Each structure stands twice: as structure tokens, then as C-alpha cells.
């Protein structure tokens, strides 16, 4: 199985990932506590991001893609995105993991620490 991570600021339906439906690919969109508290954000900004993520996940599903959209409550047991991804790697027997380069250095460093094979897609 292939897992592709979509971050909250990467909701672009025109990205090449979405041109064809591939049943071996699962897209993950996850609302994470770490993204709400590393700096102070206005609550409306956080709510808007999470709603956009939910809407994007629904649009991908309607287009025929496999999507896992995890809410803030569902990701609460995981202290970081890497802990969540490790869990998903095991649960879905992931053989290939891809993500688009994050625009934040902090997040990029977290994702680089993953010991699995990664692919940067820009």
C-alpha cells in the first residue's frame, strides 16, 4: 500500500497526485494538536483550516480516491505527526510513503526523521 500525506496548506486539487485514481494509494489528511499549539493562532484560523481539510478530503473521496481524514479528536493519542504516521504505516502495511515538501522547516525536520523510504513531491 502507498500512503501520501496531505498537509493543511497543500489542498490543491490540481496537483498531479490526483489526476488518476489509484486503488493502491491512500491519502491522509490529519488534524494535529502539534499544529495548533506551536505558536498562538486565532481559533477562527484553526477552525477554517480544519474545515478546509475536511472539505478537501470529501472532494477527493467523491472523485474516487481512498482518503483517511482524521479529526483532532482522532489524532489526540499521538504527540506528533511522526507518531501518527508510524501507526498508519503498521495499520495499513505501507510500503511506500510520499509527501509534498512542507513550507515550515520545523515540520520538514520531523518528516525527515521517518526511517521509512520517503519521496519528496513538489
Description:
The structure is a single chain. With 122 residues, this protein is of the alpha/beta class. It has one domain (2-121): HUPs (Rossmann fold), CATH 3.40.50. Helix content is 39%, strand content 20%. The protein has five helices and five strands. It has a five-stranded parallel beta sheet. The protein starts with a strand and ends with a strand.
CATH superfamily: HUPs
CATH topology: Rossmann fold
Instruction: Please tell me the overall pLDDT.
Output: 87
Derived from helix and strand composition plus strand pairing, the structural class reads alpha/beta
Termini, distance in Å? 21 Å
Supply the CATH class: Alpha Beta
Number of helices: 5
Number of domains: 1
Q: From N to C, what is the helix and strand string? A: EEHHEHHEHE
Query: What is the name of the CATH architecture?
Result: 3-Layer(aba) Sandwich
Poorly predicted spans: none
* Global geometry: globular
Identify the strand order in the major beta sheet: 3-2-1-4-5
What is the percent of helical residues?
A: 25-40%
Biggest sheet descriptor: 5 strands, parallel
Number of strands: 5
Give the C-alpha Rg. Answer: 14 Å
Strand % is 15-25%
Compact description:
The chain contains 5 helices and 5 strands, in the order ββααβααβαβ. It is an alpha/beta fold and 122 residues long.
Amino acid at each position: 500500500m502507498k500512503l501520501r500525506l496531505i498537509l493543511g496548506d497543500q489542498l490543491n486539487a490540481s496537483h498531479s497526485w490526483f489526476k488518476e485514481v489509484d486503488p493502491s494509494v491512500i491519502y491522509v489528511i490529519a488534524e494535529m494538536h502539534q499544529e495548533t499549539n506551536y505558536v498562538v493562532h486565532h481559533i477562527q484560523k484553526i477552525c477554517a483550516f480544519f474545515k478546509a481539510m475536511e472539505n478537501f478530503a470529501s472532494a477527493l473521496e467523491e472523485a474516487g480516491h481512498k482518503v483517511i481524514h482524521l479529526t483532532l479528536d482522532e489524532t489526540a493519542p499521538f504527540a506528533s505527526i511522526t507518531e501518527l504516521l508510524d501507526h498508519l504505516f503498521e495499520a495499513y502495511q505501507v510500503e511506500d510513503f510520499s509527501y509534498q515538501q512542507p513550507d515550515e522547516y520545523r515540520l520538514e525536520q520531523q518528516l525527515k526523521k521517518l526511517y521509512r523510504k520517503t519521496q519528496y513531491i513538489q
